[in-house]
Amino acid sequence: MGVANAVGSFLGRAPGVRITAFDGSSGGNADAPVTVEIRSPRALNYIATAAGSLGLARAYISGDLEVQGDLYTAMTSLTDLDFDMSWPARFRALRELGGLKLLRPPPIPPMEVKLRGRRHSKARDQAAIAHHYDVSNKFYEWILGPSMAYTCAVYPTATSTLEEAQWAKHDLVARKLGLEPGMRLLDVGCGWGGMVIHAAQHYGVRAVGVTLSRRQAEWGQKAIADAGLTELAEIRHLDYRDVREEQFDAISSIGLTEHIGRAQLPGYFGSLYSRLRPGGRLLNHCITRPNNLEPAIRERQFINRYIFPDGELHGVGHLVSQMHDVGFEVRHEENLREHYAMTLNAWSANLDEHWDEAVAEVGQARARTWRLYLVGCQIGFERNNIQLHQVLGVKLHADQSSGMPLRPTWGA
Predict the structure, then answer these.
(1) How far apart are CA 86 and CA 89, in angstroms?
(2) Which of 30, 81, 274, 384 is the most exposed place for a label (fewest CB within 10 A)?
(3) Which helix (H) or strand (E) holds 47?
């Protein structure tokens, strides 16, 4: 049967994908737009010893599996397939590929991480953030573009540029929070400072951002100085739980909740609530699951092993309930998942444009990990496997008044 056809038994028959293998065999449509190359026997070990997409990811990151053609097309075709083979079919394929020796675990690619210590302790959270963010500011500049915004953009039109969409996102958050000159804003998980800079520059707000990434804080502080905003804005290398000030007029949390953990959500929202003055607003912007039925943690998946260790996604209904339970009144909510698919597509294009520089900067394995991650997440948002929600809450005054406008003032 040959290696290519045996691997096809594992992967299924994707009409748009051709498979070739190191033994000279091939399978599938010869005219397919995408070819998956099985370059070495080790690729077979990866596929056989890790269920579903994790084995394929390990083989791709290590370079033992290659995709010729558009990776998005290949992943779209492969994710249409059912990886759940019957055991008789699995044994037949294993026997054809070399038998039980394939079940000997191969070396795990060095990009895979398993953290130590108590989950979501400050030390372990610091390690998780450092794994993903303390890579190379230059690498992120190539992917994210001038905005250095590493969260879902908001596209005013289908033809808007990434920079226009990131500006629109920051401005939407500012308008939802009702920012005005002289207000105090806390931005938790501030990244490279995009929201802090936008609020200070365009709304005259005194803004403080906090991040667990030292490299982000250093880059953001320089950007603030370069923009002449040091009197209004600052970024601290600090855990949000260690912010000492209180009585902020507004808090933005853009892409932090995914790192918090289900058990920590009451403390997280309670901490933000306690730092707001009455009438102050919280805008929580984060990736969510499409329902509350699936587990928040999936440790055996590629995304947890390689991209966001300890990441936990929740259904938006659970997040809204948690906000309510600590005292927030939720006033507005919207799903922006299509916008995130468009954002990821733009980041993928940026990475491809700077591919050679990216490989030289961070290495082949990390660059391939990121290529896989960006394309896979784009497909996830397109297919409603994951969503992006903005939830706006307010801390009521003692008389239960909200200070909110009768109708939203931030546009459609």
Answers:
(1) 5
(2) 30
(3) helix 41-49
Give the CA distances from residue 196 to residues 27, 41, 117, in Å, rounded to whole numbers and listed in that order. 53, 50, 32
Which stretches of the chain drop beneath a pLDDT of 50? 81-85, 87
- Strand, helix or coil for residue 74: helix
Amino acid type, 57: A
Domain that holds residue 150: 122-394
Q: Under a CB-based contact definition with an 8 Å cutoff, are residues 141 and 158 in contact?
A: no
Tell me what pLDDT residue 82 has: 45
The predicted model scores a pTM of 0.90
Look at residue 13 in the predicted model and tell me its pLDDT: 62
Based on the domain organization, do 209 and 167 belong to the same domain? Answer: yes
Distance CA 135, CA 139 (A): 8
**What angle, 0 to 180 degrees and rounded to 10, lies between the N-to-C axes of helices 355-362 and 337-353?**
80
CATH of the domain at 172: 3.40.50.150
Amino acid, single-letter form, for residue 5 = N
Q: Report in angstroms the alpha-carbon separations of 144 from 33, 151, 191, 364.
A: 28, 9, 12, 19
Torsion of CA 217, 222, 224, 229, to 10 degrees: 130
* DSSP notation for 255-304: S-GGGT-GGGHHHHHHHHHHTEEEEEEEEEEEEEBSSSSS-S--TTSHII
Q: What angle do CA 268, 177, 253 make, to 5 degrees?
A: 30
Total domains, the chain? 2
> What is d(CA 32, CA 35) in angstroms, rounded to the nearest whole number?
7
